[in-house]
């Protein structure tokens, strides 16, 4: 998701770039009722009744939606029992065109603010990945303050079964067979502190055990203190490695600290690991590009932000602003997968005009989200509408990568996501391929249809519920 800050001096908007959503800075606070082309006339009995909220959504969509030509001229909200279902109907045409794949949605103002301001979320504190049949459920990573890592459940662990007690654990296959669409996320329980689940797990060593985990409120570290920032020595050279999980405000000091170390150590070649990063605040994406832009001038264009024609007065041009911690890289290897979206793709795309083939995409094709949301608030109902309203381009006006960045980047290398090793380990498949790219070694390019591969060569994807939380939209696979 891309989240966008202040639009000039006219409006305080919140825009996001991520796999599915986000929010940053201020927002537009709108009234509880609304009109517009898609909103039928009708009597509303309460400011926060379903009909009033649907009417308000339709009005905002008709005013701000980036693809107004795809909206129906009139769509009666009566058949739709939720605001979300109505939004899905309004965006159906754009979704069919791959322009808005459930990127426009309704969420809670309070919930979203809690996550974006501090990384607060309730869960077990792990990120889950599964194969195409959903029968092999594995931990992609565990977060430092979550209950999973405290119980020794970390990257490479396989979950064999889930239950509410030790005696009623069901196998993953049985859970998926009963409910292929949302069985796994339902089995994991609601995202509320105190939820307890029992897991049969197979540790990376092959040891099978039963573990009880309790969901708790924890703070996500955007850069892992364990492996997120490091200097890798390989083949007689030193390389910077930075893994960013999500673009939230607390990433600012962590990114600065990492790049300050890189600068002090004279690092000029960097691995940027965004393999699971679904996006977040555009302000953090700007910072990331600036930290990678020590050679840039304040007159150099970083990128362009464009609204629909009727809102073109809000269009902006972003220029580089090198920071005290900025480095001047000679080569950058971006690790990506199908879970790499929005703000993550934006950072990579904005390096291309200046780095060209010295920027490489390593791993697999990215998600494909060259657009961002703004936040429109109906505060009295705790409704925040995340509506696709902006398109993003780099300094060369390159954008529109709805099918991912594989067809855009001039250099790429296929690589797997090796769950048997920690991210940042020089022998982990994607990290190894990134080092090889930085060292100028040959590789097999990523095709536009390439998907992330694990060590066992089976296509894998991050597990996502049908109705993800604010945190799960930017940190796909988080539970």
What is the strand and helix layout of this fold?
Blueprint: E1 2-3, E2 14-18, E3 28-29, H1 50-64, H2 83-90, H3 92-96, E4 105-108, H4 109-118, E5 120-123, E6 126-131, E7 137-142, H5 147-150, E8 158-163, E9 170-171, H6 172-178, H7 183-187, E10 196-202, E11 208-214, E12 216-219, E13 229-234, E14 237-243, H8 251-264, E15 269-273, E16 279-281, H9 282-291, E17 301-306, E18 316-319, E19 331-336, H10 343-355, E20 359-363, E21 371-378, E22 383-394, E23 412-414, E24 416-417, H11 429-438, E25 453-454, E26 460-462, H12 470-474
Parallel strand pairs: 1-16, 3-21, 14-15, 15-19, 19-20, 20-23, 24-25
Antiparallel strand pairs: 2-16, 2-21, 4-22, 5-12, 6-7, 6-26, 7-8, 8-9, 8-10, 10-11, 13-14, 17-18, 17-22, 21-22
Helix pairs in contact: 1-2, 8-9, 9-10
Descriptive notes:
The chain is an alpha/beta fold. It contains twelve helices and 26 strands. Strand 10 and strand 11 (208-214) form a beta hairpin. Helix 8 packs parallel to helix 9.
User: From the alpha-carbon coordinates, what is the Rg to the nearest angstrom?
Assistant: 22 Å
Per DSSP, the total helix count is 12
Instruction: Report the sheet-strand fraction.
Output: 25-35%
| Low-pLDDT ranges | 3-27, 31-45, 451-458
Class by alpha and beta content? alpha/beta
User: How many angstroms separate the termini?
Assistant: 18 Å
Could you estimate the helical fraction of the residues in percent?
10-25%
Morphology call:
globular
Q: Please state the average pLDDT score.
A: 89
Biggest sheet descriptor: 9 strands, mixed
Number-wise, the strands total 26
């Amino acid at each position: 998701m891309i989240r966008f800050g202040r639009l000039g001096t006219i409006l305080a908007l919140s825009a996001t770039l991520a796999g599915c959503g986000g929010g940053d800075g201020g927002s537009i606070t709108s009234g509880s009722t609304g009109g517009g082309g898609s909103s039928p006339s009708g009597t509303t009995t309460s400011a926060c009744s379903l009909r009033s909220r649907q009417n308000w959504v339709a009005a905002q969509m008709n005013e701000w939606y980036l693809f107004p030509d795809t909206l129906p001229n009139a769509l009666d909200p009566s058949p739709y029992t939720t605001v979300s279902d109505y939004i899905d109907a309004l965006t159906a045409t754009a979704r069919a065109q791959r322009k808005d794949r459930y990127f426009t949605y309704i969420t809670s103002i309070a919930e979203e603010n809690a996550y974006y301001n501090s990384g607060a979320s309730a869960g077990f504190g792990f990120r889950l990945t599964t194969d195409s049949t959903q029968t092999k459920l594995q931990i992609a990573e565990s977060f430092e303050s979550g209950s999973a890592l405290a119980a020794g459940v970390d990257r490479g662990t396989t979950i064999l079964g889930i239950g509410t007690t030790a005696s009623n654990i069901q196998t993953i296959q049985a859970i998926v067979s009963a409910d292929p669409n949302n069985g796994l996320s339902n089995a994991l329980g609601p995202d509320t502190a105190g939820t307890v689940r029992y897991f049969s797990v197979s540790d990376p060593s092959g040891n099978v055990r039963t573990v009880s985990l309790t969901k708790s409120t924890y703070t996500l570290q955007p850069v892992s203190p364990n492996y997120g920032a490091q200097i890798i020595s390989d083949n007689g050279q030193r390389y910077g490695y930075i893994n960013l999980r999500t673009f939230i405000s607390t990433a600012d000091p962590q990114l600065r600290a990492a790049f300050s170390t890189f600068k002090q150590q004279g690092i000029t070649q960097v691995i940027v690991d965004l393999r699971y990063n679904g996006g977040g605040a555009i302000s953090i994406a700007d910072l990331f590009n600036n930290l990678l832009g020590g050679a840039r001038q304040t007159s150099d264009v970083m990128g362009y932000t464009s609204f629909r024609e009727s809102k073109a007065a809000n269009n902006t041009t972003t220029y580089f602003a090198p920071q005290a911690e900025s480095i001047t890289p000679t080569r950058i290897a971006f690790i990506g997968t199908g879970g790499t979206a929005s703000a993550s793709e934006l950072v990579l795309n904005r390096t291309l005009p200046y780095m060209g083939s010295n920027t490489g995409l390593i791993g697999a094709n990215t998600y494909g989200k060259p657009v961002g949301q703004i936040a429109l608030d109906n505060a009295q109902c705790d409704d925040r509408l995340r509506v696709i309203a902006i398109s993003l381009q780099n300094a060369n006006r390159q954008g529109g990568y709805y099918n991912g960045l594989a067809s855009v980047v001039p250099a790429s290398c296929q690589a797997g996501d090796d769950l048997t090793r920690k991210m940042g380990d020089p022998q982990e498949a994607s990290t190894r391929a990134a080092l090889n790219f930085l060292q100028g070694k040959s590789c097999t390019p990523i095709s536009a249809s390439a998907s992330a591969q694990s060590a066992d060569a089976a296509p894998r994807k991050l597990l996502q519920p049908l109705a993800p939380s604010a945190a799960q939209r930017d940190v796909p696979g988080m539970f």
